[in-house]
Amino acid sequence: MGSHVSVQAMCLLRLKQLRHENLVNLIEVFCRKKHLYLVFEFVDHTVLDDLDQSSSGLQEDAVRGIMWQVLKGIHFCHVHNVSRVTIWVVFIGPCRPM
Predict the structure, then answer these.
(1) pLDDT digit string (tens) for 36-63?
(2) For residue 51, what is the enclosing H or E element?
(3) Which residues contact 15 (CB under 8 A, 6 or more apart)?
């Protein structure tokens, strides 16, 4: 169990260090009563807001722009060796103080 905690801590540290305009930044991580809490930066506008505004869907140019931002964010993560496996490790196993 101890090795999982150290891997989890390393993954969280990596996620906290990521800074990119197309990523929502992880600001703080803490554990209380065996629950892991991740605090992210505030985002005042999301794609869901755009979808709520448009009953007929988004325009092609808007979708193209959103996809470009997503791809740039994913590329940044991969260049810095962060994958869905890194993120998955954070969410499995018990919460332990780091």
Answers:
(1) 888 999 999 888 898 999 888 899 999 9
(2) helix 47-53
(3) 26, 82, 86, 87, 90
Distances, alpha carbon 14 to alpha carbons 11, 40, 83, in Å: 5, 14, 11
**HSE-up of 93 (CA within 13 Å, CB side)?**
15
Q: For the chain, what's the residue count?
A: 98
Domain boundaries, the chain: 2-91
* pTM of the entire predicted model: 0.71
Cβ neighbours of residue 11 closer than 8 Å, sequence gap 6 or more: 86, 87, 89, 90
Residue 95 — left, alpha, or beta (φ > 0 → left; ψ -120 to 50 → alpha)? beta
